[in-house]
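Archive entry. Fields below.
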Amino acid sequence: MYPSGIKKLIECLKNFPGIGEKSAERMAFALLNFDKEKQTNFIEAITEVRDKIKRCRICGNFCENDICDICLNDNREKNIIFVVEKPKDIYLFEKIGIFKGTYHVLDGLISPLDGINPDDINIASLVSRIDNGNVNEVILALKPSIEGETTMQYIKKILENKKVKVSKIATGIPLGTDMEYIDTLTLELALEERKNIS
Amino acid sequence: MYPSGIKKLIECLKNFPGIGEKSAERMAFALLNFDKEKQTNFIEAITEVRDKIKRCRICGNFCENDICDICLNDNREKNIIFVVEKPKDIYLFEKIGIFKGTYHVLDGLISPLDGINPDDINIASLVSRIDNGNVNEVILALKPSIEGETTMQYIKKILENKKVKVSKIATGIPLGTDMEYIDTLTLELALEERKNIS
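PREDICTED_STRUCTURE:
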């Protein structure tokens, strides 16, 4: 019923997470109303992403060269590795701007139920970075889910005999949230990990 | 901070209605995770839309030729014109599949406050279609807002002396909705336009 270009566009838009038929249609018609210049910019941006964006050979971050800006930067402390699940997490922490070390992207979390084993994510490359460099601290910043915790426990275990401090970022109540919206497991953890008021 | 391709992509995605910085970032990273083939399909679909989709010379519908499939279709009744605000509305009514006439897209609604006058939308072309063809019925299917009602009143008035029946689609309570979620104006209209139970 739709002209073929619109139909194709709707199908493409449905690839985005959380975008169903109706939202895809709404977006397609919005895109039809963009002026030609905006449409061209969009085409060029996707083309640039498709053709130029690679993964950093060291940490797995998105970058336009073999090695990303963070790994290339001499001011970043190469002895601290901050382990994240996906490249996007890097940008979340970079926005805060207080972390001066380097990153490592696992590209997934261990999840036996989904058939994702330690070999399927970038743990071996993390270990080899630690074996081959002067790394003395690994900070695990994976989400506090069963998969995240399993992955953190696994990494903690395989790094046990190496001279490296392994920590994970704190779980607890996020700031500015009303208690009633927090799940019970988080409340339990927040209670367990209570701190003395100094 | 982001590689330039990703930054450009986020900016493009922010052009969609309702997509802010965070949603655009989420979508950009989703797109980065598409395989090359899906990315290419997306580029091709936008290119096709940019280069091939035109507006029908008769009704203003989106189409790939000078005249849209509906206006070209000999089985459609050319004496009935269904007036809508935007091309997307055509597809909403086509999905129902019961309307067998033709359409006319106004591309907007009269809104003096926003500086949109009758001359700024496709009313003149509607009148000339009526003057030049065998049109005997015009159905107005504009949304029941101040702008929609103003536009319907205006069209009703300029068609007053022409031999054409002008109607508008019904307002009232949508099916399956709980009364408490309906605004008072709709409730008032629904009461005013009550029908005998036959």
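CURATOR_NOTE: Chain A touches chain B through 47 residues (CB under 8 Å).
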